[in-house]
Amino acid sequence: MYWTEFATVALVHLLAVASPGPDFAVVVRESVARGSHAGRWTALGVGAGILLHVAYSLLGIGLLVSQSVVLFNLFKWLAAGYLLYLGVRALRARPAPIELGTPSGLAAQSAWRSFSVGFVTNGLNPKATLFFLSLFTVVIDPQTPLLVQAAYGAYLAVATAAWFCLVAWLFSRARVRAGFARMGHWFDRVTGAVLVALGVRLALSELA
Known about the structure:
This protein is 80% helix and 0% strand. It has 208 residues and is an all-alpha fold. It has ten helices and no strands. Helix 2 (22-34) packs antiparallel against helix 10 and helix 3 runs antiparallel to helix 8 (146-171).
């Protein structure tokens, strides 16, 4: 009896996740610079960030954030600051060949770092907070059992991670990475400019 509601949730999510934003930018950057392993872990971090949004939406904390200018601005400035940090680091990139392999000794550290980048980028995004709040209050009927809503949330997290794993796979192909090898620092700088622009845009955003 919830298939129609689920289909609506899935469609809205598809339109949202396919729209380029901070998540897309960091997954692409990790994939091109460090390969598919790092890209996949970044994608999984983004998916885990979705679970965070789903959890507090179900608990009603998202409603509190949406109604509190102070809390909204706190999340906004934390997210904007993190995006600016990532962007400035990328803007300072120097010419260096992109290695097509990942040293096995750094695998665990790289996985945790990449996962953290994806999780923090998505988890601190107040726009995602408002998106999931509207999703769980407007699209999903309040009478829908919490267990069913939690199942929706699990799907959203898995679908998001799967989408960005596909993005990571595409941008970590040897041919694609080889194309960036000679101009990798310029790609980093362009990505950095995008992240800085997203950070500034987020910092100037208002609570709807």
